[in-house]
Amino acid sequence: MTSIETDVLILGGGPAGLWAAVSAAAEGARVVLVDKSRCGSNGPTVYGSTTLWDIPPGRSRTEAVDRALRGGGGLGDEAWLHRMVDETHRRLRVWSGIRHRGPDGADGDPPVARLDGASYLRRLRRGALEAGVRILDHHPALQLLADPAGTIVGAAGVQRHNKFRPWTIRAGAVVVATGGCAFLSGGAGTEVNTGEGLLMAAEAGAELSGMEFSSAYGLAPVLAKVHPNPAVAPGLSVRFAALYDDGGRELAGGYPAALTALADGRRVFAALHEVPDTVRHWLSRHGAVDAVGRVPVRAVLTGTVAGAGGLALTGTDCATTVRGLFAAGAVAGREVVFGAAGPTGGPRGAWALSSGTWAGAGAAAFALDAGRADDARPVPGGGLGPHAHLDPRAVIGLVQEHTLPLRRSYRRSAGSLRDSIAELDSIWPAARYELGGIGAGQVRARQAAALLAVARWAGYSALVRTESRGIHRRVDHPEPAVGWQVGQRCGGLDTVWVRRCVAAAELTASRPATV
Ligand SMILES: Cc1cc2nc3c(=O)[nH]c(=O)nc-3n(C[C@H](O)[C@H](O)[C@H](O)COP(=O)(O)OP(=O)(O)OC[C@H]3O[C@@H](n4cnc5c(N)ncnc54)[C@H](O)[C@@H]3O)c2cc1C
């Protein structure tokens, strides 16, 4: 058993976790960051180029915020958006890693900083090490530690590269930055986004927000030859400029029109000449190009990674509803900035940077202020038993059947949601108590339990919101409803609950209504 003491523990080393680590260290805290893979070498950002909104004060900033508020169906918060844009712009001005800035809104789009994703993460990792952050790669976190009052005081997990020996890290505060949950759909880099951070936090009593906005889809080429290592799939992160129907007519509505066509059972294609040379060769090699030189595409669920659902935030320091626990990046509820939308590119990068910065500083302030509790116990959780009585693949298969298809998450109805909830609920007790194992088996069991928990929160939340807004689409309620201009909270494990927030900026929890 490896035991470490620190001030701030960061779980997850994507862009949000790395910005959080640097920010906490800048406040004078001792910081340890654990990642289940190699920090800075995985996750969706590592594939292709990444963009971050980088908008100076002035008209373009006001216009970008207004557009984001409209796109979010009126659920976003103007003050949070302005704060996010301002923090990102100020940080990027002094950060040495910027390679290329987009034109300052000349084409009507907000200005962005464009970076190669892999170099961006490498540079952030180097910056964190230079700031004194201790980075522990291949250290999946499996559960949180809490003191008798329920305050989070660390986490525990295993070391992948060291025969799965256990580790325990005691900390004054913990930042969860484990990314969103994409249900192992095959989207580039999302194989690490399996929801354990959400599950660990919920087991400690954390609430979630906006989980009905977890139905974001992207497009990926249909591959005739599947690569033996699905992580090596640069083609999957391509954003196609133009899309066509079977008859060669361009789909004027872009991605939404393509998803509608695919949901209707029609075929959609991207033109090969529009993708960069390196990607074109890769697509040809993998059998993604048809006889007439087009690339057939399919819908890929990006879930909460590109949606807005996640851990509910209670303040501008990105504290969650559990004392001592902070959230950053795609694991955090982003309704406050994106509302009901699943934005692409720039805003998401800005959120990872700014929420990481705030969560790191918030956790450092909390840790340096709080006294250290003597007693720390692991928070019990699903799938952590020593024996494997249930195959995680069975659980994951069921979860995918009820989340990945467009008919389940893109076109929802009360009937399909009730059906999914009933199936997923029926396997929960077995998943909670009979998933388990040791070593790699324990890590897989925990992932399966997390995927199931996230699918249930998303399904329950989508059933309660009887309207269509942003990326939440109900075929039985196809329009936005006036009374629904509010957010939702949810949580619970054996019994999932959902309740409306009385106001979008509601900060405290009241008695939940059970669905
Ligand atoms: C197809 C696609 C394209 C995208 N393109 C862009 C873009 O162009 N620009 C942009 O800004 N954003 C883009 N995004 C969104 C991007 O994913 C997020 O902005 C960003 O990755 C969020 O960063 P994060 O640090 O919160 O999470 P992630 O980048 O997902 O990082 C999470 C980290 O946590 C680790 N982790 C997970 N679970 C555990 C655990 N139990 N214990 C320890 N470590 C754990 C993972 O290994 C990973 O390193 C895209 C997303 C998708 C799906």
TrEMBL record:
It catalyses: L-aspartate + O2 = iminosuccinate + H2O2. InterPro entries: FAD-dep_OxRdtase_2_FAD-bd (IPR003953), FAD/NAD-bd_sf (IPR036188), Fum_R/Succ_DH_flav-like_C_sf (IPR037099), Fum_Rdtase/Succ_DH_flav-like_C (IPR015939), NadB (IPR005288). Residues 443-479 form the Fumarate reductase/succinate dehydrogenase flavoprotein-like C-terminal domain. Keywords: FAD, Flavoprotein, Oxidoreductase. Residues 7-213 form the FAD-dependent oxidoreductase 2 FAD-binding domain. Its cofactor is FAD. It holds the Pfam family FAD_binding_2. Catalyzes the oxidation of L-aspartate to iminoaspartate, the first step in the de novo biosynthesis of NAD(+). This is L-aspartate oxidase. It comes from Nocardia rhizosphaerae.
